[in-house]
Amino acid sequence: MADPVQTPIGIDLLHVPPTPLLPYHTVVTLGMADHPMSAPAGSEYMRFAELAVHLPAEWELDPEALRDERRYWPLRLLRRLAKLPVEQATWLWIGHTIPNGELPSPYAPDTTLASAMLLPPLLLSPEFQELELKDGRLVMFHSLVFLTADELRLRCKSGAEALIDAFERGGTEPEAFMVLNKNRPALRERRRWFLW
């Protein structure tokens, strides 16, 4: 999927359709690693990355369906985040969160998800989690996971590991939070999982 908005930072999206082994769409950025991020000193291995998002098998990805913002918003965010390190002279890494606005609001009218967090690509096999290019660049892949406003508050208060631990304590398999589920119960409905 070519970037519909042509800018000096072009980001294309690669689509891997669902398979019996991986029964969800995987969409990966292409172009983010063309530009080194402003990683902290001593963390040069963190300068190159690409992002991925996992969408349910029933998510419509044909061009006509993507005219509807209720279907396009995860891809719009994927592209926006891939451009962010260059446009803002910053970096993105595992555990970073990106709220949807100063006071996080839902991405679309049919979801309570209002923030994104980067996690290791838990649904990809280890050989697809990093890629060494011929020029020596090591490209790391990160998965975009969507959170409710309550989950973002827990992440900000106690850290990314506490949030993942809370999901796991609730018996949640990685697919349940790694694959976008716009109707996933909000945190307040599962508060018993969390140690405040």
Give a structural overview.
The chain has one domain (12-193). Strand 1 (12-16) and strand 2 (24-30) form a beta hairpin. It has 196 residues and is an alpha+beta fold. The protein is globular and about 45 Å long. Helix 2 crosses helix 3 (160-169). Mean pLDDT is 85; it is low at 187-196. The protein has 4 helices and 7 strands, in the order βββαββββααα. Strands 1, 2, 3, 4, 5, 6 and 7 form a 7-stranded mixed β-sheet that branches.
Strand segment count = 7
- Outline type: globular
Strand/helix succession: EEEHEEEEHHH
Query: What is the count of DSSP helices, taking H or I runs of 4+ residues?
Result: 4
- From the alpha carbons, calculate the radius of gyration and give it in angstroms: 16 Å
What share of residues are in beta strands? 15-25%
Enumerate the spans where pLDDT stays under 50 for 5 or more consecutive residues.
187-196
Biggest beta sheet summary: 7 strands, mixed
Distance, first to last CA: 42 Å
- Looking at how many chains there are and whether they match, the oligomeric state comes to single chain
Q: Could you say how many structural domains there are in total?
A: 1
Output mean pLDDT.
85
Question: Which structural class is indicated by helix and strand composition?
Answer: alpha+beta
Helix content: 10-25%
List key phrases describing it.
196 residues, single chain, seven-stranded mixed β-sheet, alpha+beta
What is this entry, summarized?
This protein has 196 residues and is α+β, with helices and mostly antiparallel strands. It has helices at 69-87, 149-158, 160-169, 174-178; strands spanning 12-16, 24-30, 49-56, 97-99, 113-119, 130-132, 138-148. It has one domain (12-193).
